[in-house]
Structures are given as structure tokens and as C-alpha cells.
Amino acid sequence: MSLSKTWARNAEKWKQEFLVCPKQPALGSWLMIAGNGLGCKICFLAEQKTEFGRCLLTSPRQISLDRFRKHQATEVHLRSLARLVGCECCTSKLDDVVDSRDAPSFADFQRMLDMSCVTIVTHADGKNKRFTMHFTAVDRDLEIIKSTFGHAWQQAAEYNPVEGYVRLVDQVLKNFCTPLASPPKAKRAPELFDRELYNLLREKHSAFNTDACKVIILAGQEVVNHLGTNPDPLFPNAVAWIKDHTHSARRIIQRVWRTDDRLTEIMETLVTSGSAFLKHLNHSPELQSLFQANLKKQKHVSNTGTSHSLSYAAHRFDSQVKPLAHFLLSFEAALATAMQVQSLRAGDDYGKDAASFLSFLVGKAGAENILQTALMVDAGDMVMCLLRFFDRATFDVALMGEQLHLFCQKLDWAFNKKHILELEDSFTGHALRLLAKTHIVRIPGQKWGSGPLTVGGPGFVAAATRQRCLARMQAFVVLAVQTVRAEFPSFEPLQCFGIFALRERSLVGDVASKLERVAMFCSVDASALRSKYQHFLTKAVSYYRSQASCSSFDAWRHVMLQEARAKGRSMESLAPELFRAVAQLGAFTGCTTSCVEVTHSVQDWLWPKRRNKHLSLQCEVNEITIATSPPGQAADAKTIAVARDVWRTVYGRPRAIQRAARQDKGKERSKGKRSKTLGGFFKRARAAVTHHARHHKIRSIQQVGYDAAPGAAAVWSEKMNNELDFLAETLGDTAVSLKQEDAFHACILGGQLKQPDFTPGQAEEAKKRKARALTLQQERAEQAEKRRNTCSFTAVRLCAGQKCYFQPGISDNLGREAVNMKRVRLTRRWIEADWFVLERIGDMATQNLAWAACLLGGFLVDATYMQDAVAGNPSGEPRGVCVAFKAALGTKRRVWCSARFQQLDVYQTMAACVGQAGSQWKFVDLEDFCRERGKRNASLKAIAFVTDDEQESFVQELGSNCVFTRETFITKLARMDVKHTTLGVCGL
Q1: Which residue ranges make up each domain of the chain?
Q2: Structure pTM?
Q3: Rounded to 5 degrees, what are φ and ψ at 914?
Q4: Which of 569, 762, 880, 967 lies at a CB distance of 3.0 to 4.6 Å from 864, suitable for a disulfide?
């Protein structure tokens, strides 16, 4: 197409749009034709050496509306226009243009971290061989500064990777303190290295945050001397090493779901395995087209394309919740697509996988799978809410305890109280509505039965099915709560700053002890901090509640700044102890390595393989500009401008910007044509659960796990028990016990927080006490083993009138024979049984019954022993297993468990005893327990469970006849031991 035809067709329209100055229409348009090309009149008169200035636009691709609009907004055109025309309208446009190529100088970074800096918290993360450090600093005006220290490359495989990462931390700091040190091959000039700034950074560091990689964790501990083995650490004044809480929240489902074989099977069948049909549906364009066609036919569809996506990130276990949720929302379309695929692609892998997918959903077993999937999605969404809170670079660290408490409230309300089955706005409610309908599944060529197979229908979700699914989720609750306690211990530094929370003051807890720990962390006087804290607390709460959106740090800063200005003093001189604590609160704001991962993403985009090598310095400087820009509209605009500038520099031409208006813009679309959607289902479900959970009160986070234990006993497995032991070990490794358990919650981090009255003599005494506890444990184990080997077996006779409890699954004939021949009575309430007949003693599934016999007194036998006890053994040699327990404990009806007593199996049975109809058992707190102990014969009615470390102190206070540990409990009550088997009872 020639230029004359293009110009003749669009000339008038373009001239009216592209005027030299809108306020001076007499000047006409800046478009002009010179020779055979089109150009810009303003740039031509200003003698600009560009295509527009030389009128070299000739091809149809160059003569386009988008190109003219971009040129009109360029700095070259606006600068020429301001020089030639000079009106106020044209000059004001030039003032809005920022030269995005001018990166901030090194002096700007130095000014951010000069002597006004109070504290620094660094976040480090690695990706491949790249190591990047981000920091959060607070100055003397309590202004938060977030920026990037820089990055370093690991040159080769290190023999000791921990030492390698420690060297990388030092290298990043030195590069930051040396101007123009970013080119990889440039040698650092000694005279440019700022030693004063380097020493300042080392001294001002108060904490070091790392991701979950074991190597970086060890490097972080070495940097702050967490292990106490480095005499000259890089950050000598840092008192805390922090493991990233975003990764900790991710482990709530990453580890827990893998302990349940049924949940693992659902994940593999639907999402993760190579033969998962949903994975084929997401990656195959052919199957995706079938799925989209069926989705349009579905009555209730999601209104956004992202809600149809079944993709997830393989390295992010938590993202696997998304395809499960989208599968439930598009269930009918996925089912129809699977039937089409197994018919059209019969014989190949897609057809076989579609048939396996359908077989996983049909029948009552399939209904249980669908309901279990919905419960998993609801639980996963609760975890995702907690994860998103920690994943923000601005999250309020003072609300950390409140969010953990709310998460456990959701678990308790949904699964322990079983309200999730009644909530319509939930994925479980959606699944129950789906299963209430009958979906016919036709599979040609498959002989699966005489009639058609169905998915769902009346009576498909029986009460027993719901109970089994809820039991698995209650097991999830037990492990999730223990994971929260292990990954977010209440004694860590970030948790103690919860005293500055202003929204839910009832959840703050023991203010005095937390203030003591904050004072130790900030190295200030505790009494002065307590006085200033009480002085400003009321004002901070009042200001916080008066603002629509305000963080805890902003509220404390505002009230301190307001009073300091009124008195004409600085905040630091007004309340130095509180100032130091609030500054540390600001440094912990957004304490996550997610900001480092964002920087990695920016680097991946800015560092393509085909980048010009001579532009490396400019690109890295621009990258720092993007990564260090503070939040705000102006900064965002500058960030976008820098990114576009780098794109033009690297790839040669800018991307086209679509500015065409919608055809129906300004027109009201008919609401009658819109289909009923499930687009807001996620938001409604999350809001409904949160609303109910906030009004549901729980006693403590630990109590939620205890309440879930009885229901989880039916599905408890060896994997879950191993995970529970691992979490208890993790929590124990994090804490260091002091002599006084309740002084500072018995825990400090890594010996770095120094308590004034914790002397070396007390430390030595703590080591001796731990050695005595280990020796006592070994002696008890040896005594139990000796008793097993030397015990003489005496047959126990069945007596008429005794009550027997038979484990479900044992033959009914054995029970009838016992009733007819020995005149015993059968019972289904194990709390009143004298004999407990199990299929196999020592199995995890029967552990609660074993503890019931131990707690209530009775005989624990297997089916073989009961057969001989009923019918007799001709050989005279007793067979099977019989364990007898003293019945004296059955009279005790008041129970108190120490907060550190972590024996789930004991607590399961105790909770079941309390929950039985007509039961006299009751849980009491320590105050009621001591009051009960003061009554006559109280030792026969009260029992306390404590740990080995607590036994000595509680025995002196309460007496030895009612204080038990797990080992002493079994030692005192077991009267006979296992015969003809190597298995023990309850894991002994």
C-alpha cells in the first residue's frame, strides 16, 4: 500500500487528533509529509535526528495510530515542543516526564543507612547459584526503609556450603559498601571501599531471616553465632536468627497431608501423578477444548478464566489446593469430559487415565473421595489465608499471634465441632449438593456391573462416610496444631512483640513476661519499658480504632511523635526504652523472604540470555532501582518507566500498547443474559468460615489439638505418630529450658538473650538436671525390660457378670460363646468394660482402648487368649496375650495435664472418658486441682500428668500419689506383662 493511499484515507482524522497544542488549534497538526515519508513537524523544526524528525516513516507498519500516540508522549517530542511553542500547557507536560535512565547514586543508599539508622533486619534467599539479600531498616524518625543489599554468585561447588554462604553474605555487604562494584569482572578499588559503613551495617543488625533451605539456615545461624561456636561472627550484635514464617505456614499442609495415605492417594489420583486426568486436562490443548465446551453447558460456571485453570506449581505444595478447588467448581464439566475422552481415546493413555478417573469417582467409595477432597480444600484454604498473611512484605508482626489463634479457631469450629458439614458457603457444602444429585456415568466396553454406574445420589453420603472423612480431618487438626506450635513457638522473638497488638487485646496474653523478653531482646530496662508502655497504650488503642486502615507500628509511632512534638523533644529522648522496642517492631514488619523472591523474579526478567553484554552494568543498576523503590503510586510509575526503558534498551523496540476502547464502553449490558456464576465462591466461603470462627472461642491453641484427638484415633497411623514425634523434637530443639519454667515461658533463643539472674551456676545445674532425667529414663526402661523377661504368667479366669468389650471386626461367635458358657455381659461402652478384647495388641488403631484399660483398670487380651479363656486349651499351655492393670485408678475423676505433657495417646482416652454420657470424669485447671487436693480423700479422685522435668517440683507441691509421668503411670499400674509376643502395649 502506497503512502498516498494511507494518508488519503486517514489524514483528516489523524490531523484532528494529533494537534501541536490543544489550546492553540490554529497551529494545526504536527503531522507532515516531506518527500516520500511522513514525520513530525515539531521534531523536524527542532532538527531531531530521529525517524520522525527526518520524515522517514514510509511503510504501513510505521504509519500506525499506536506509533503516533507513543511519539506524542516521548520526552524528545515534548522537549522540542516546549522549546518551539513555549506555552504553559506544553511546558507542564514536560515537567511530568522523568528520565528513568538516571539510577540513584550511591550517596542515596548511604544516606538511607547513615548514623540515623537504629536497627536492621536482613532477609536472605538463594536461587540456583544466585544469593540475594534484602533488608528492612528503621531510622531515628521511626521511618521504615526497605531495600536490597545486592546479590552475589556462587562461583563453584563448595566443599563446605555453609561457609560458602557465610562468605557470600560478607561479599554482598562489601559490594554494597563499594561504589560501582556490580560488574562481575571489575576489581574493587581499595580506596573506594567504605569501611565505616561496613562496620556500621555489622553493628546495627539485630536479626537475620532465612528461608527453609537447610544450608542457608545453618549459614544464618553461623552469621549471628546462634550455635555459639563462632568467636567473631559477622553480625556480633544480632540476637536472633529467624526461620521464614511463610515457609513455616506452607509446611502445615506440605508435611501433614503426606502422613495420611488416603489424602496422599487423592492428591496423586487427581493432581500430582503422571497419570492424573486433571493434569492431562490442563496440559493437552485438545482435552482443554473439550473441557471448555462442557464448561459452557454447565449450569453453574465460574465467571473468570483463571477459575477454570487446573495448573499448579510443582515446587509449591500449597498451590495444589487450587486445582482441587477448581475441579469441584467445574465437577460436571470434568465428568463429562472424562466420559468423552475414554470413549474417543479408548486404548491410549488418555483413555485409560480417564477410565481410572471415573472409577475413582463412582459408587459410594467415590462419594467418600469427593467429600474428602472438599474437606481438604476447605482445610487448605484456611492454611492459605494464614500463608498469605505472612507472604506480604508489609504484614503487621504484632498481629501474628492473633492470626495463628484465628487459624486454630477455624480448625476447631469447622472440624472439631463439625460445623463445616452444615455451612452452605463452603466447598464441603458444594460437594454435598453435588452428591445429592445422581450423575450417570456410561463407559462403553467396560463390564463394571449390570446397571449404569452413578456418581452421587440419594443415600450415597451416609453418616459413617461423613464420620470417616471428619476423622481424617481431625487427625489433620492434631498434626496442624502441633506444626503451628513447633514452627511458630510462643517464645520466639516475633511472638513476644504481640504485646503491641491493638485490635484484640484479649489475645495478648501475659504482658509482663512478654515485656521482659522484649526488654532482653532490645537490651533495655524492663521496668522503664513497662512504665512507658502503660503510658502510651491507651492513646495507641484509641488512635488505632479511629483509623480505617492502620498498622500497630503506625499507631505507636503516631502517639509517640505527637507527644514528642508537644513537648519539643525527640521520640528517642522522650521514651528511649519504648522507642527502641517500637523501632524493632518496625524492623520486623513484613519479616519474610518473599521480598527476596520478588527480586529474583525481577532479575530473571531483566537478565535474558541474549542481553547485550556491554549493557550489564546499566541493567543491574536499573534492577536495583526497581527492587529498592518504596511502595507508592509515584514509585510504581517510576518502576514501570524503568522496566519499559530496559525493555527498549535490550530488545530494540517497545511493545505495542492496546488503547482501543471497548465497543460496548458506556453501554449498559443486559443482566438477564448473564449466567449464574460461582466466581465469588472462594471469597464467600472464606468470609463465612472467618465470620463464624471469630465468634467461636477456644481456650488455647494446644486445646484444639487435644479436642481433635479422640476423633482422630480411628484413623491414626504410624506415619502420623512419627510426624508427631518429629514435631515434638523440633519444638524441643528450638527451646532451651531455664530453671524457672514459668518465668519467661521457659525458653530463650540460642543462649543469645541474656537473663540477669541466669548465672553460669544455674546453667550447670540445668545440665545436671537433664542428665539425671536421662539416667532415670534409662533405669525405668531397664526395669520394664527386666519385668517383661522375669514375669510369670498366670491365667486369668472369666467370671460371671463381668462386662466385655469386643473390638469391631472380631467374630460375633466368640462373643456369643462367652455369653453362653461364662455368663458374661457384652457392652459397647468401653468406659464400663472389665475385659477389652482386641484383634491385635500393640496396633496403633487400638491404642486408645489399651490406654482405657490402663486408666480404668481391667484386662487387655487378644482374640486368641479370649478363645482359650472361654473354651479352654487342651494342652494346658496358655496362648495369646493378656495384660492386666490395677483398678485403683478407676476411682479418680479429676484430671489436670501440664502444658508440656505431649502424650497424645493418654489424652485421647482421657478426653473420651470426659465425653462419655453420664461420665464423672472432668478436666480441671491447676487452681481447681489444688482445691480438690485439699479435700478429704482427694488423692483417690485427682490425678496430674506432667513431664519428667516437672515431676520433682510437682511431687513436692502436690504429693507423689497423684502426680504421674507417662513412664511412672505404666510402671505403677501394670500388674502383668505380655506373654508369647515381642510387642508391647502403647508403644512400650
Answers
A1: 3-95, 106-243+593-651, 250-487, 493-587, 803-973
A2: 0.61
A3: -65, -35
A4: 880
